[in-house]
Structures are given as structure tokens and as C-alpha cells.
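[DERIVE C-ALPHA CELLS]
===
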Amino acid sequence: EEDHLSIVHADPRRLIASVTCVGLTLDCFVFHAPSENGAPDELVRYEAWWKESASLYSKFKRGHAKSLLFIDANAEACECDSRLVGSLGVKKELSARFSAMLGFLEATSTMLPSTFSTVHEGPCCTYKHSTGNKRRIDYVAVEACDADALVSSWVEDDLDVSTLRDDHFVASLSVSFPVSHHSPLTKRCVKPYDVA
């Protein structure tokens, strides 16, 4: 039904939608962070982009809704002292780019399930450069308060998206959000929800 989905914000690097279906209300955030380009002010612009993204998250996040964030961060997760990032597949040294993203995670109380060995299964890499270099730069994030709803995380590398070459692979997450049986949209209970 068309009234189940509302686009509440769109710009060239962000799409924010509200989704209501099957007794569940979701706020979906799709973020594509700026790539490294070697410009002198690159890091300043990258940090500003994450701060603006945190502001947009706060503006459009509805209190009663669950949040899913689909992020092409153009940054690899790094070891850090944070409950929002685990130790699975992370780089040893904290990079300035990931530090900027970590500021976003802390400001929004969102976490990266694919960095936790208790959640993630299989390979971690989500991006393959034309040189063959592989990295994890794509994530599905959730609010930290929903950590108990996490079922599993994985990278779907066998999905045909009809591109000229494989570069990004789908960061996937299975989560079991509670479904309200009092919603007028409730027709059946389906869980866990698989999101990719």
C-alpha cells in the first residue's frame, strides 16, 4: 500500500523513509558517505557530513519507531573503546574517517552488529576495489537499545545486482523486532525480519 511508505528526506547522499507494515513502524536511513578524494579539506568535509547526518537522524527519528540504517561509510571499522562497535574484522588503529563515523554512532546511540562475533557469520568484506583489495565499508546499523533483537549478520556476496563488475556486496542483518498486534495494519506476524 502506498500509504505504508513515506520519503521524509532526500538529498544526493541520504534517503530517509518511514515505513509502517505488519504492525511494525520503521525509520529507514540510507547514508552514502563521501569517498576519499585526496582534497586538502576532505576530512573536514567528511566530519561535517557525519555531523549533519546525526542532526538529520535526530530530526526524523520517531520515538516509537525502530531504526534501520543502511550505510556505505567509505570507512573501515577500527578498534575503539565503544560499546557500539565490536572487535570482529576491525582495523587495529583508529582512523580519522572512522573516528568521524564513530562520533555519529555515539550521537545517535546506534551500533554496528556486523562487528560483533556473537552476531556476524562468515566473511566481513563488503567492498572489492578494481585492484582486488577488499574492505568492509558497508554496514546495517540499529539502535543500541535493540541489541537483544539481533539474530544474525552476514555479507550476501551472491546477489546479482547487474553491475558491470562486482564492487559492493550486500551487508545483511536479521533482526526480530516485536510486532504490535494492536496496529490497524496487522494482518499476520512475520519475524524475524531479514533486511539487506
About this structure: Residues 42-60 form the longest helix (19 residues).
